[in-house]
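Reopening: structure tokens for the adenine complex, inputs below.
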Amino acid sequence: MIHEESGKTEDFLMEQGSAEEEIVVNLRPKSLAEYIGQEKIAETLKIAIEAALKRQESLDHILFNGPPGLGKTTLAHIMAIEMGTRIITSSGPALEKGGDLMGILTHLEKGDILFIDEIHRLPKIVEEFLYPAMEDFAVDFVFDKGVHARTHRYRLEPFTLIGATTRAGLLSSPLRERFGITRDLDFYQEKELVLIVKRSAALLDVPIDDEGTFEIARRARGTPRVANRLLKRIRDFAQVRADGKITRAIAIDALALEGIDEHGLGETDRKLLKTIILNYKGGPVGIEAIASTLQIETDVLLDVIEPYLLKSGFVIRTSQGRKATDIAYTHLNITEHKGPNLFDSAKTKRRS
Ligand code: ADE
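Re-run output (same inputs, fresh job):
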């Protein structure tokens, strides 16, 4: 699937809804100035944009790595808007054959951004077309086979590839090395999420007080996409069950209904922790065993669910597998099969 947009003309703030002509508000920031958090990355991108515009060149190829919902796609769209170029979007799994990518590459115009989401899932055969495209702005067509094989080099317009991945480690080194800028996006701090929730509430025109804002930011798993999703659910709740205003009390009741607990963990997160603790005595247990017990794809566990549990210290990764920590036991109020104490192990490490 290919999607083409123009950074120049697209109004990213408001999109016309189809059937009911309702106005859907797009919460994504459309400039780096509006973008909250990831400050160092934003600064790097600002410099890259200014330099490229000054030299009237296309941007270097960029790779964004990090868990879902942290803003990789948003940043790619912002780059197109700020450069005043088109953005053509596709994804690793959508590009099945060399020809799929070739069709896109040969239609690129000067300066276009090609955004490939989940670039780690690009088939090897397709990936190989990218090497000369990225390095020399050319693709090599091969005619005939064996001793009769001839190649024809087809020139491309200079373009920028922006790749997004949740697993940079799965990229082959030739591909990884061809990106001029590679950045890891990290989970957002609570104070950044507070600003994001405030901004989104203003765009959605929903009244919210500071405590309500803080409650959402605190439970958003360090992730803007989660913060915005919670905000929308709580807005519904506030409209139906109260006077429309989001307060701390309304947020607490709405989040209870959503199954989101004090730490922002959902049903699946708690199931994962309980599986490690109750089925595998607190670990260590391999990720495949957890995935098969929970009947969830290993990739979803690795890319979507586990990163926040690791980051917030509910789970640790050891060479033998995953272990639940004291934080997980305390949070779930379970005392049996006690896991390792992070503080004790830190002390032990310091002593040794
Ligand atoms: N909405 C979603 N992510 C955002 C961000 N990083 N800054 C501002 N608004 C956002």
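The pocket of adenine is lined by residues 27-29, 34-37, 71, 74, 196, 199, 224 (CB under 6 Å). Confidence is low (pLDDT under 50) at residues 7-21, 342-352. Marking as resolved unless the reporter disagrees.
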